[in-house]
Q: What sequence folds into this?
C-alpha cells in the first residue's frame, strides 16, 4: 500500500501512514498542489512554521515508461508568496516510487537551528546531523560526501549555501545518476528546505520491489508506442538530442523573440556564438558529451557534458534559458564564461534563470558593465560568500530592481520572466501573466505553437488564438506535471495523437483504470483551480496577473507591444 | 480663485488652472487621496510614468489657527505598493496656502535623468537645474544652498541621497522656519520625487495676500477657543511641550508595550536612560532647547533642539518612535548615539522609523551586534554611501528580513510596525493591520485611549472595544489629516468637546460653510473608502490585513498574544 510520510523537523520524528484517500488518485504536481492548498495557511510566512514542503513522484515514475522520472516539489514560495510546484530530473523520484512512497512531507522548524540529513529507506526514516564538511560547501562536493557515506547509488535531494542562507531564489538540487546536478529551480523552494533545517534527503531503495503494474502487457505495448512517438518527432527525436534546449537561441533570435540587454530588443548580432549549434560543435571538438539524460530511462537526452578546452567537465543540464539570460539578456558573448556561471549556480544551489535575469538587471543599474563576463562571474560568486550584494542577487531580479530603484524589472508575481519576449511570442506572455506560479514558460509553453509550429500554429505577433492556446497548454501542463513525465514529451504528444493516447493507456494499465483524454483535461483544471484558490486566499487578485509596464515599449525588430486588455488576460484561466 | 497646478517633469512645463470642482471641498489627505485614487493607475510601478506626486495644504493652513501648518503628500507608495498620504511640518504648506494653491501635482518622468529645482511663486512655475553641489549632499547643506539662492524665507521640499537612489524608505524633507528638517517620513514618497527628477520644490510666497476668511469674527473667536483647548489639555499643554513625544518611553515601558530587541518583549531595564525626562534634563544641562515648534503657529511645541556636550545642535524633531526603535528595539542605550543617527536620517532623507526597525532586524540577523551604537551608526551611514548593505537597509525592514532569510520581521503591507507592541496595546494593532497606509500608528492612534486614557479608556490587553476604537480613530484621523492640523490636536479634542466644535467652526468660518460633526465623520469615511478602493484595485485583499505570525508568541511582561480573529480584523473598516 502506497505510503504517505510526514516528517516533523522540530521533533525529528516521522509518521509513516497510508496515503489519505483524497490524495490516492493524485501524483506529482497534482498531489503537491492539492496538499499545499489543503494544509498550508495561505497567509503564512514561507520560511515559518506553517509552511510545508512536499515531494511527490508522478503517476508513472518508477515504471519502465521512458522519461517518467521527474520529481515534483511543492510549498508556498518565498519568492512569489503564492503556491509553487517546481520539478526536476535526477534519480530521487524513481527511488521514492520504488519504495512506494506517494509523498514525503516536511513540517515544522528545527529546534536547534542545526542541519539534518534525513534518510528514507525500506525500513523507515532516520535523522543524522549533517556532516560538518558539507554545511556551506558546494553541491558537487556535498553529493560526493553524501554518496560516500550513504552509498553511491542513493538518491539525493539537497540544498547548497543559497538554501542555507534562505535566499528567495534558492533551489532544491538533485543528484543525477552520475552524481551531477539537476534542479527544482524556480520559486525558492530551497529556502523552504533550509528553513526546516534539512541539508539533504537521502533515498535508498535497496531491497525495494519493482513498481507494480496492474495490466503489464497493455502497459508494455503502450510504453513502446509512447517511446516511438518521442523518438520520431523532430523536436524530441532530433533537435533536443543533438543540440539540447539551446537549439532555441538561433530560433528565437530569428523570430525576434530573444530578449537582449534586459528586454530592450528581441534580436542581436552575436546569438550564434552562444547557440546550440556552436555549443555542440565546441563540445564535440573538446571531447565532451553532446547528449545525455538527466534520469534513467530518458530517450530525449537533451542534457550534455559541457567541458573546458582540456576536456574537463564544467557543467551539465546547461539549458537554453540560462544561456539566453547571460548570453543575450546580459550580453555576455562567451559560452565558456556562461558555463562557469552555470556551474556556480549548481554549486551554490540557486535558480539559474532568476539569478541570470537579476545579473542583467544589475547591469542595467550600472552595478557592473554590460556584457562583462568576469564581473558577472565575480558577482555571482558573491552569493556563496553571503555578501550583501550576493544576497540581493540571490533574492532575484525584483530584489535587485528594488534596491537599485529601477522600473525595468522583468518579473510577474516577483518571479523573473524567462527567455521569450512576451511582445514577440504573445502566447507565452499570457502564460507569464496568468499562471499561479509567477512568470514561468514551462507552465504553458505557447512557444511550441507560436514559434516551433508544434500542435498547430498561432501567429506569435498577433493576439488571435493566444488566450485559448495559453489556457489549453496550462491545463495540459498541470496534468503532464502529474505524470512524472518530462515536459518535453508535450512536443511529441501535441503532434502525434497516438503518443497522447499511449500516455493515458500507460496510466490506465499501471493503476487498472479507464481514464480518457477528458479525464486528463479535468485533472489539469482541478489542479489549476486549487492553485488559483490558494493564491486568492494568499492575497492574489487579477491585479497581480499583469506584465510590467515597460512591455508597452515596442520590441525591435518587430516593434510589437504587449497589448492584451485586462479582460482578455483575465479570461485565460476563467473556466 | 484657488489654483490647481500640474507640473509635467518630462517637458518641464506647468499648467496652472482652477481647482476642479470635485476637489473644491477637499484639502490635505482628503485631496491627495481622492486625487491619487482618481488619476493613478493602481497597478503601476511606483517609480514609473503612471505614478503622480501631489502636495496639498489642509483646510485651515495659512490661517491664524494654531497648529494648522501641516503639508500632505500623496502618491502610490514604493514601499507598500498601496496608496500613501504622509504629512509633515515645516513652512512649505503655509506658503502654498498663502499663494492660494490647492494642490501641486507632479507627473511624468525626466527626459534626461537630471535633477531639477522647481520654483513656485505668485508669478508661476520655473525650472532650474539643481545646483551641482546639492546633488548627493546632505539635506542640511542643501537647504542652506537653496535658501542662499532663493531667499532665506522660502519654503523648501527636497529629497536627500536616499530619494535620489530611489530607496523604498526615502522620505520627503521640508525646511522648518529655522532651516532645520521635518519629514513626510513614511512609505517612500521621496523615491517617487526622485524618480520624477525633482531635487527640490521652492515655494516663495513674497507678494501673496493673507488667506481670506469668509466670516472673520467668528473665525477669531473659534480659533481662540481651539487654542485654549490645546493649551489646557494635560497632554498637549504639559506633557508634549515639556518632554516632547519622547515622554512616551517610560509610559510605554511601564505599560509593557515598549517593543524591545525586535519585539521580543515589551519592557526593558534601561528605558529611563533614553526617556523624555532624561532627554529634557540633558538638553537643559547642555543649553539646548527643550521645546520648539515645527511650524509657525504651533502651541504644542513638542520639538526641541538636541545638542551635544558642547551645546552644539545635533538634531530636532527627535521623536519617540525613532528613540524607541534604536533605543529599545535595537537596544542602544545611548541618547547621543541615537541623536547622531537621527541627524543622519535627516541628512540622507530617510524614514527614521522604517530604517531604525530595519537596524533592529539586521541585528537579529547577526549583521551587527545587538545594542552596538557604533556599528549601528556605521550601518546607517552606508545608506549615503550607496553600498549594497546601505541600499538593503534603505529599502526597509522587510528588505533586510528577506535578504537575510528571517521570519521575525515586524511589518504590515511591507511597512515597519512602529513603537507600540500590538499584543500589549491591542487597539493600535488593529490600526496596523487594517489601515490602507501599511503599519502606521498615526492612522488611528488607539494608544491614546488604551494607554493615555484620552477619549475614555479601553483596556489595552483585552479585545473588547478595540474594533470600534480603531475604526472611529481611523475615520477621525482621515478627517483631521485634511485640516492641515497636527494630529496631536486629537488629544485635546477627544477630551474637550468645545475644542472639536471650535475646529469645525473655524472651517465653517473660513469657507462660509455650515458643516457639523457628522459631516466630519462622513468626510473621514469617504477618504478611507477611496483609499481602500485604490488598494483593492492595486491588488490588496483582506489577506494583507494581517500581522506577522510571530505575534502569536506571548509578549512579556503581560504575556498576551495577538488574538483577533480574521473576522474581527475584517470588521474594523467594514462601514
A:
Amino acid at each position: 500500500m502506497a505510503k504517505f510520510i510526514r516528517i516533523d523537523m522540530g521533533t525529528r520524528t516521522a509518521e509513516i501512514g497510508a496515503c489519505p484517500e483524497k490524495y490516492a488518485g493524485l501524483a506529482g504536481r497534482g498531489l503537491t498542489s492539492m496538499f499545499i492548498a489543503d494544509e498550508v495557511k495561505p497567509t503564512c510566512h514561507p520560511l515559518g512554521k506553517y509552511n510545508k514542503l512536499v515531494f511527490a513522484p508522478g503517476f508513472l515514475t518508477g515504471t519502465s515508461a521512458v522519461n517518467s522520472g521527474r520529481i515534483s516539489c511543492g510549498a508556498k514560495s518565498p519568492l512569489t508568496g503564492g503556491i509553487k510546484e517546481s520539478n526536476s530530473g535526477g534519480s530521487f523520484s524513481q527511488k521514492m516510487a520504488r519504495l512506494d512512497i506517494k509523498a514525503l512531507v516536511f513540517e515544522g522548524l528545527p529546534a536547534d537551528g542545526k542541519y539534518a540529513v534525513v534518510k528514507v529507506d525500506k525500513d523507515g526514516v532516520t535523522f543524522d546531523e549533517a556532516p560538518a564538511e558539507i554545511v556551506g560547501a558546494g553541491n558537487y562536493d556535498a553529493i560526493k560526501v553524501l554518496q560516500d557515506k550513504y552509498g553511491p547509488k542513493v538518491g539525493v535531494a539537497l540544498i547548497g549555501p543559497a538554501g542555507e542562507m534562505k535566499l528567495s531564489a534558492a533551489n532544491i538540487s538533485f543528484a543525477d545518476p552520475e552524481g551531477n546536478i539537476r534542479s527544482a529551480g524556480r520559486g525558492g523552494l530551497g529556502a523552504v528546505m533550509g528553513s526546516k533545517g534539512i541539508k539533504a534527503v537521502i533515498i535508498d531503495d535497496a531491497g525495494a520491489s519493482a513498481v507494480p503494474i496492474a495490466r503489464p502487457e497493455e502497459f508494455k505495448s503502450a510504453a513502446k508506442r509512447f517511446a516511438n512517438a518521442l523518438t520520431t518527432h523532430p523536436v524530441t527525436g532530433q533537435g533536443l538530442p543533438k543540440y539540447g534546449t539551446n537549439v532555441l537561441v538561433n530560433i528565437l533570435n530569428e523570430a525576434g523573440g530573444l530578449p537582449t540587454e534586459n528586454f530592450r530588443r528581441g534580436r542581436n548580432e552575436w546569438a550564434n556564438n552562444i547557440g546550440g549549434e556552436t555549443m555542440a560543435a565546441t563540445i564535440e571538438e573538446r571531447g565532451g558529451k553532446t547528449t545525455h539524460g538527466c534520469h534513467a530511462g530518458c530517450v530525449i537526452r537533451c542534457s550534455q557534458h559541457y567541458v573546458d578546452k582540456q576536456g574537463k567537465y564544467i557543467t551539465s543540464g546547461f539549458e537554453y534559458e540560462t544561456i539566453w539570460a547571460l548570453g543575450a539578456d546580459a550580453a555576455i558573448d562567451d559560452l565558456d564564461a556562461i558555463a562557469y556561471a552555470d556551474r556556480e549556480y549548481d554549486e551554490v544551489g540557486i535558480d539559474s534563470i532568476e539569478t541570470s535575469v537579476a545579473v542583467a538587471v544589475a547591469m542595467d543599474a550600472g552595478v557592473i558593465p554590460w556584457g562583462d563576463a568576469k564581473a558577472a562571474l565575480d558577482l555571482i560568486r558573491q552569493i556563496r560568500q553571503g555578501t550583501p550584494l550576493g544576497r540581493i542577487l540571490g533574492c532575484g531580479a525584483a530584489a535587485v530592481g528594488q534596491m537599485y530603484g529601477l522600473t525595468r524589472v522583468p518579473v510577474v508575481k516577483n518571479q523573473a520572466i524567462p527567455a521569450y519576449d512576451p511582445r514577440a511570442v504573445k502566447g507565452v506572455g499570457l502564460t507569464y501573466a496568468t499562471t499561479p506560479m509567477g512568470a514561468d514558460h514551462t507552465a504553458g509553453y505557447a512557444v511550441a505553437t507560436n514559434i516551433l509550429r508544434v500542435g498547430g500554429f498561432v501567429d506569435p505577433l498577433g493576439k488571435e488564438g493566444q488566450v485559448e492556446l495559453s489556457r489549453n497548454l496550462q491545463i495540459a501542463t498541470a496534468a503532464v506535471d502529474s505524470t512524472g513525465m518530462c515536459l518535453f514529451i508535450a512536443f511529441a504528444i501535441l503532434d502525434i495523437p497516438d503518443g497522447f493516447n499511449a500516455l493515458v493507456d500507460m496510466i490506465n494499465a499501471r493503476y487498472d483504470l479507464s481514464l480518457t483524454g477528458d479525464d486528463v483535461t479535468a485533472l489539469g483544471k482541478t489542479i489549476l483551480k486549487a492553485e488559483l484558490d490558494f493564491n486568492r486566499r494568499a492575497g492574489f487578485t487579477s491585479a497581480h496577473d499583469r506584465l510590467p509596464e515597460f512591455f508597452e515599449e515596442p520590441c525591435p525588430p518587430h516593434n510589437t507591444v504587449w497589448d492584451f486588455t485586462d479582460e482578455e488576460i483575465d479570461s485565460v484561466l476563467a473556466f
Notes: Chain B has a mean pLDDT of 97. The first helix of chain B runs from residue 21 to 24. Chain B touches chain A through 40 residues (CB under 8 Å).
